[in-house]
Known about the structure:
Chain B: Its main location: membrane. The complex is a heterodimer of chains A (328) and B (358). Chain A has 14 helices and no strands.
Amino acid sequence: MPEQFLWAAEVMVNGLMAGVLYALVALGFVLIFKASGVFNYAQGVMALFAALTLVGIMDGQVPFSHLINAVFGTDIHEFGWHVPAVLAIILTGVVMVGLAILVERFVLRHLVNQPDIILFMATIGLAYFMEGMGDLMWGSEIKALNVGLPQGISETVEEVTYNWFGYGFFIDRLDIVATGIAALLVVGLTLFSQYSKQGRALRAVADDHQAALSVGISLRFIWILVWSIAGFVALVAGMMWGAKSGVQFSLSLIALKALPVLMLGGFTSIPGAIVGGLIIGVGEKLFEFSIGPMVGGATENWFAYALALVFLVFRPQGLFGEKIIERV
Amino acid sequence: MLYREAGDFKTTYSEDNQTFPIKFDRIGYYVIMFVAFLVIPFFINDYWASAVFVPFLIYAIAAIGLNILVGYTGQVSLGTGGFMAVGAYSCYKLMTSFPDVSILVHVVISGIITALVGVLFGLPSLRIKGFYLAVATLAAQFFLVWLFNKVPWFYNYSASGQISAPERTVFGIEVTGANTDAWAKYLVCLIFVTGCAWLARNLTRGTIGRTWMATRDMDIAAEIIGVNPLKAKLTAFAVSSFFVGISGALFFSVYLGSVEVGEVFGINKSFLVLFMIIIGGLGSVFGSFAGAAFMVLMPVLLKNVLVGGLGWPTDIAAHFELVIVGALIIVFLIAEPHGLAQLWRVTKEKLRLWPFPH
């Protein structure tokens, strides 16, 4: 029995680590939803797009090379230089800011005052657009991403846990680093929104668009800012997942994993995204570990949704969400 | 000069309430029905049936179903793929368990089974709405696909995990299986589309349709004036799933013949049908047809132009399709939120006044 208990504990720790990565994606959703009321389905594709761009810049790949070759019959693929990881990350950040400006200019600005669900569908359209664009620019084959993050099983953890319990835990080093980075990101974002001028403006917009406008806060600037931050969060998430399982289309599907996280935590709460991510991560790993073998496995596909659904029936606004009061 | 309502007098209430109040529309409708039933079947070949007509008709049924839920009742659903899978698998089980019963009956019963499943997954809509509901219906999508993948009873313990439609006939003419003629497939789908469109049109303009629309426009106000939200939402889920189930059953049995659930009824199918109704027009039966036609024809056209005409690789054409679909969704939402149906309405208004602008 103690052995089983230890296995369960290991599964739980791994679940916590996976949950951190879910939370990272969910964080991008929450930021945009808080500041503009837009439920951004494209967050996952933004992570994919950021990761693709990062790999493309690092390897000196020519954007749209496939398309150019097809149209002009040329045979170009690479510039032939290799950009160091730090510079590539900064350049990708610049691309994401440009993307935020474009989104504000061509999508959001025209959809002010539309019902939320229309905006949601617009972001689904944006997701398709960006996915196609990313594939056109950088090609759709699976790419390895190596930005110098540690890989493999951590021997230290294995050794320490072996000495403690007589059983070594297998934990990926990347997961540990990801947890650290996620924690830093959350602290940074919280400090930014609590203490900086822009952060205060951001919270003001989140509270009341009209009132924020009337005290001279530029809505457009805030939207660009918040989409840039979300793009940056997407970049970090894309980097983590890309280093873990390669940069490929399935990366955009982590957005779908982040949705139940949001439902559980509440759409408007940063702590909610973190706690929700951890609960989902641990919950689905434990469920797969304990119940999975009885029902044929692969329960991870739907368990998160079922959990969120059951939870919502009892508390429709999520764990930390604001209670919505409606009037006719 | 042709499109006029002058001189088109109505003397009874039933004339005033008919689906096509303008004579020109009515004649156009009969002409289209005539061409669809009595002309196309004689000219259709395998390519046109499998690339254009059959998928168009089947997607039109699914789009009508989803439009009832999203366009008329305002309950956003992303579980269409899952519900289509329910229709397909119940049709498969019925076909193999009761081989003597007509396939047409099986398709309708599959619709009813899907309706029951739809009501089950519609229950959360009583508590939650908006985004939360949209995400909740994703639970249906993933759970159902997983279920059909993992429980061998659903695919009769076949080794591949696929389901394949056995050969079935209607009045001695084969409609499922490998040797089916193009016109037989087409006519079966056409009959179901006509029935579904007729049913949807009459449901949506009756009492039940008005309770749906009241719920969509302002649910709390609707409740105050006496609409039962529980009944309105659950009937919308039931009717919508019924149509989606029929389309899933036809998709499997008549169109594809054999199906692997994860590939055919995945989340992309849900989005595809949702895009059809956004581009076609929310809350309009005609819009469901327009959207289905658009989303079926556009990839065919792109493939012919880019791959066939310009000689590009197929994967670039596929990526271009994603870019165009995404851009179109955004453009439609910004420029014309009521979709192609609204463009058609505006055109008709202009035609009625033509050549005078006012």
